Amino acid sequence: MSDAVAALEARLGHVFRRRDLLALALVHRSSLHGRGQNNERLEFLGDAVLDLAVSDLLMTRFSAADEGELSKRRAGLVNARALADRAAELDLGPVLRLGRGEERSGGRRKSSILAAAYEAVIGAVYLDGGFEAAREVVARHFAADLAPGSAASAIDHKTRLQEVTQRRFGETPQYSVVEASGPDHDRAYVVEIRVGGELRGRGAGKSKKEAAQRAALEALAVLDEAQPPRRA
Q1: DSSP E strands: which ranges in the chain?
Q2: pTM (two decimals)
Q3: How many helices (H) and strands (E) would you count in the chain?
Q4: What is the pLDDT at residue 178?
Q5: Which residue of 81, 142, 149, 185 is most buried, as measured by CB atoms within 10 A?
Q6: What is the pLDDT of residues 111-132, one digit of tens each?
């Protein structure tokens, strides 16, 4: 287990003084049958630490952005799917302690369990090294998302488009993947958006998420709503 913990610390970017905190962060409640401590308290703490760290990083990276824009950017970064992706990148699944039922049902691949484990690990880093240590870890994990020109660092055009279409048409946009090409390691996707049965936008990207964001941006331009509303 010590070799596995050391490998996880290397991937995480933090060497624990108290490895018991890291060990606890990997304990899912299903493994305890109601006895002993699980990672839920660390998950609770990590959720708050993540929000603060990402908010701090966004305010530094986007110094001219207002509260509304910062909130949308944060929502695009700190959500269950994004956190599960971070957990997968750290390869948390194989080192989780799960009960037999969760093991059989594919718990090591469940987004909800992975996202919760990632939050618990961030909570453990905070308790072990303080906020600066946690912020450094979060900054490293989200560096690509906050890089200039990245799809994830862009304004959440999908959220903006939904606001616009609900206001103007009383309905939400419909997304569909119309093309997927290339080998598994270098896929490309094309996504189309329809509102009221009419094609409103089309976008391409290296992931479905990126393609959808680009399609949403095109749809906003078509609807002459590409710019977020200015604050009074």
Answers
A1: 174-181, 188-195, 198-205
A2: 0.66
A3: 10, 3
A4: 95
A5: 142
A6: 889 999 999 999 999 999 999 9
